[in-house]
Design brief:
The complex is a heterodimer of chains A (176) and B (495).
Chain A lengths: L1 H7 L2 H20 L4 H27 L9 H21 L9 H34 L4 H22 L16
Helix pairs in contact in A: 2-3, 2-5, 3-4, 4-5, 5-6
Chain B lengths: L18 E2 L7 E2 L16 H8 L2 H14 L5 H24 L3 H8 L1 H15 L3 H14 L3 H18 L3 H27 L2 H11 L15 H9 L7 H11 L35 H43 L2 H7 L3 H14 L3 H37 L8 H22 L6 H28 L9 H25 L5
Helix pairs in contact in B: 1-8, 1-11, 1-12, 1-15, 2-10, 2-12, 3-11, 3-12, 3-17, 3-18, 4-5, 4-17, 5-15, 5-17, 6-7, 6-14, 6-15, 6-17, 7-15, 7-16, 8-12, 8-15, 9-12, 10-18, 11-15, 12-14, 13-14, 14-15, 15-16, 17-18
The chains are: A mainly alpha (176), B mainly alpha (495).
Chain lengths: 176, 495
């Protein structure tokens, strides 16, 4: 049951990763790769990105990442993105490794940082909606949702403490 | 139910008689600064600046210059975007400290300065030019004539913003998804088509400070470079509008200002105060909260704004370089003045290499960028003009801010449709060119305005540091200097 609860948290990240990976399928055709190999390439990238995307959600549920913070997520994708690309090139090579593996990995790590921005951005949009659905039957989701609610309440209370508008002041120049 | 005790988290507002006098306008009452977000939260109003800023400069102008003059020309892009990141931080300083827009700040310094921006916005942003590139790209993909898409887009924007309960929330959600898709998509494209050597040349090019080939210093190309510098990141008045979005998101003292509603829900809107608020800058606890807000916005400026702008531009440059490798004719096409021809040549080049998919994806991104810019620009323009009208046109307070917002929104939409139907027939590009001079001039002017507002209208403890003033001062010289050099040396304004 615990595993199922963890796995349920993986869905938003896995979906983002899988869709991004599938996009790459069309791009491999760019290099004149036959359709079969292009499909294999898309599958390899979609699966690995989906896997890492889902793992991010699970680790978020275990408190290893904090919702909405970029730093750890950026580091995570700097490692995960090059590995996904390497897996894709190994399974269905499209000539990406022509410049050598070290150069390839460094380049992909750099792109991975950019990918992380988009990933966190979308994940933060999708995850709270998913957690609301899961929370009644999933204690991990409920705890994580609590963190999101805490943040929302902090923002709301700052707005709630707003002063009455248009209150005119009687004593001018007190601070200047 | 016992309602006599307020909940612990929302203490009743403490009335404070003190005020902060800034300029000749109404003084700002001293109120509590809200707590900064508990974590450096990624979702801030920067989404608007990114949506507005990532546009033609990143997807077309700079890749084009790189293909023509080599990657070394990108040092000017680095300067442009870095400058814009500092401008963003300084715009945020005033907006978060007071809850006022930078337009109100300008009025506190010298009212005609604010009217100057009001007039520039009217002159520059009523033209529907920004719609044309995205609509033209959509025409390439779908075959639907660009004018139909553009007019349908205009009406749709008007209807959506009129029916939204709180405009900011709707726009933030829509733009967030679109920008997220754009960022992930460009990262994947760059990962697939680029290589380490492309990035090495692109990045080392950014540090070739001072590189300007002889051809760049001609009447044909220097104005184009000036235009590209102005379009590196947010151009024209977009940074000024960002202060309105910061306020609407409740950042800093913006929490004390109500949100603008859509026309249909205008009756639910709270009365808009005629001035902002200030916090007690002599209270260490308040200053600690201020530092938290500055950290929050600095993260936004550096990672989201600077990072995404760089990522998108590098990706598009890498795509353009790949396109030229595949089809050298692209270089010739891109040298021409017609942006649509150049964009479609780039798309054709990548398509002809083996699949039409990348060509469609390329044009899809251009359409997406156009859509983002359209949504963001219409909202921002209407928000800015409504803000200035409400606060500074006598009698305007009889109306609600939502009514003024809707008036400007539908005004610009109807004018846009008329121009598209009966305006200049020389294609969409003709509309954009006249914007460039005024846009660039406004950028130099807002740098000067920022220096005056932040150094004269804010209490000393929260004024900008010397190095920040130096960078903003450099910005004024950079934009105005290039603009007037182009005007006097070549007799041409901006290309």
């Amino acid at each position: 049951m615990i595993e199922r609860h963890s796995l349920e948290l993986a869905l938003p990240g896995a979906s983002i990763g899988a869709v991004a990976g599938a996009m790459a399928g069309g791009l491999t055709l760019f290099a004149g790769v036959p359709a079969g190999l292009a499909a294999l390439s898309a599958l390899a990238f979609a699966m690995t990105l989906g896997l890492f995307g889902g793992l991010y959600g699970v680790l978020l549920g275990h408190g290893l990442f904090r919702p909405g913070t970029f730093g750890p997520c950026g580091l995570y994708w700097m490692a995960a993105f090059p590995l996904s690309r390497l897996a894709q090139e190994t399974l269905a090579g499209t000539g990406g490794l022509a410049d050598g593996v070290p150069g390839f990995l460094v380049y992909q790590a750099m792109v991975g940082l950019g990918f992380a921005i988009g990933f966190v951005w979308l994940h933060e949009r999708l995850m709270p909606h998913w957690l609301i659905r899961l929370a009644p039957a999933n204690p991990q989701a409920e705890a994580l949702l609590g963190l999101y609610l805490q943040h929302a309440q902090a923002l709301r209370s700052s707005r709630a403490s707003r002063s009455p508008r248009n209150s005119r002041s009687s004593r001018k120049g007190a601070r200047r | 139910m016992d309602t006599s005790k307020p909940p612990a988290t929302s203490a009743p507002p403490v009335e404070d008689d003190r005020v902060w006098k800034a300029g000749r306008l109404e003084p700002m009452p001293i109120r509590k600064l809200p707590d900064a977000p508990p974590s450096v939260h990624i979702l801030g109003p920067t989404v608007f600046l990114v949506a507005l800023g990532v546009g033609m400069g990143e997807s077309y102008m700079w890749p084009r210059l790189v293909l023509l003059f080599g990657p070394e020309i990108r040092w000017l892009f680095l300067i442009g975007v870095t400058l814009q990141a500092v401008v963003m931080l300084e715009m945020a300083r005033y907006a978060m400290a007071t809850g006022e827009s930078i337009f109100s700040g300008a009025a506190r310094v010298f009212k005609p300065l604010m009217w100057f921006f009001f007039i520039v916005a009217m002159a520059v942003y009523i033209w529907p030019g920004h719609l044309s590139a995205g609509a033209a790209a959509l025409e390439e993909i779908s075959g639907i004539p660009w004018m139909i898409t553009a007019i349908a887009g205009l009406v749709l924007v008007g209807v959506i913003f009129s029916f939204a309960k709180v405009i900011y929330n709707l726009l933030e959600n829509v733009l967030s998804l679109l920008i997220g898709a754009l960022v992930i998509g460009t990262a994947v494209v760059a990962a697939m088509v680029g290589s380490w050597s492309d990035v090495v040349t692109t990045i080392t090019g950014m540090f070739s400070i001072g590189y300007l080939p002889a051809e760049a210093m001609t009447a044909a190309w220097f104005p184009v470079i000036v235009g590209a510098c102005a379009f590196a990141g947010p151009s024209g008045m977009q940074q000024m509008w960002y202060t309105l979005h910061l306020r609407a998101s409740g950042a800093g003292m913006g929490a004390h200002i109500p949100k603008v509603h859509g026309l249909r829900h205008a009756g639910e809107e709270e009365a808009m105060p005629s001035r902002g608020f200030m916090f007690d800058t002599e209270d260490p606890a308040e200053m600690a909260k201020w530092k938290g807000w500055r950290r929050w916005v600095t993260f936004d400026a550096l990672l989201l704004f600077w990072g995404i702008t760089m990522l998108v531009t590098i990706s598009f440059t890498v795509i353009a370089q790949a396109a030229v490798r595949q089809n050298p004719d692209v270089r010739t096409a891109i040298q021409g003045d017609d942006r649509e021809v150049a964009l479609s040549a780039m798309a054709d080049a990548v398509s002809s290499a083996g699949s039409s998919v990348l060509g469609v994806i390329f044009l899809g991104f251009i359409a997406l960028i156009g859509l983002n810019a359209t949504l963001g620009l219409f909202d921002s323009f209407s928000r800015g003009q409504a803000d200035m009208t409400y606060n500074f046109v006598p009698g305007a307070k009889k109306l609600r801010m939502s009514h003024l917002y809707a008036g400007f929104l539908w005004g610009v939409i109807i004018f846009g449709i008329l121009i598209l139907l009966f305006g200049p027939a020389d294609g969409p590009s003709g509309i954009l060119d006249t914007l460039a001079f005024l846009s660039t001039f406004a950028m130099g002017a807002y740098c000067v305005t920022l220096l005056l507002v932040n150094n004269r209208m804010l209490p000393k403890p929260i004024r900008p540091r010397w190095w920040s003033n130096l960078i903003i001062g450099f910005g004024a010289v950079f934009y105005l200097g290039m603009l007037f050099y182009s005007l006097f040396a070549f007799g041409v304004v901006v290309g």
